[in-house]
Amino acid sequence: MKLKNHRIEGIPFLPARLTGGTITPEIVILHDTAGRLDKFNSRDYLARTTKASVHFVIERDGTVSQLVPTNRRAGHAGQSSYHGRPDCNAFSIGIEIVNPGRMTRGAGGSVLAWWGQDFGPGGQIGGYGLADLETPEHGRGTWMAYAPEQIEAVEALLLALFATIPSLRDITTHWYVSPGRKVDVNPLFPLEAIRARVLGRDDPALQAANAGSTPEAPGAFVQVEAAAGLNLRSWPSFNPNVITSIPGGTRLPVNRQGSFSGRQWLNVTYSGRDGWIVAAYTQPIPPSA
Description:
Belongs to the N-acetylmuramoyl-L-alanine amidase 2 family. This protein is α+β, with helices and mostly antiparallel strands. It has 3 domains: 3-99 and 146-201, Lysozyme-like; 104-144, no CATH class; 209-285, SH3 type barrels, CATH 2.30.30. The protein has helices at residues 41-48, 148-164, 174-177, 191-199, 204-211; strands at 3-4, 7-8, 19-22, 27-32, 56-58, 64-66, 72-74, 81-82, 85-86, 92-97, 104-105, 111-112, 130-135, 139-144, 170-173, 213-215, 221-224, 230-233, 242-246, 251-260, 263-270, 273-278, 282-285. The strands form 8 sheets. Strands 16, 17, 20, 21, 22 and 23 form a 6-stranded antiparallel sheet that branches.
């Protein structure tokens, strides 16, 4: 992606009706649309309404649309404050990520969005990854994982913005600037990993993985037992961080091992990349084999 004249080249631009005066953006605020997942549903609403607006919208498949130039005010943060400075709309770029937001569990294992759509037990209706989590910032809820394509698009967009807008200095969230009023982005979003990659800082997720694991003895190998393949992940977590899929039967050298969130994980090397896999889907290979 490339930013030119305050617009990202090569993506759709739908001018929002609610577009304000000139701003100098200093932060980027990430949001959930908290609406239906149909492609362009939230984007088209935000383009035509006079109640809210945002600079960018990212669909489930990673498609990015722009609604407001990056040097113009959009109505995305509402009542907000960043490190004591009020009215974040006056100095921020807003990015909306298509996601239903907090959901609730109903009778029979149903998972209900606020507009009544049922995503079924464990996200089986539609194949979505759901998790029941509670954090001090978000409270308790059932949350939908972001698609890998969305995470990739968020990172690519942020890299383009920070490479071109010298006044930008931080990436934050709606729940951070509006605590107690908003809970987006949801707790499954890999915020610190994204901030680390875009802002050039050490990835805290990888730091935690290294600190919570131990090196394996040289010559340790495992074989993937999952017939359908096994995901190689950037860190030991089920957040959207898949590097690639490893075919069943593949032999892998083991670099580190550790227990995270009650599961045993292995750091392995596959096709020249180091990453993490769930140990339960592998079988140790004896040194003589």
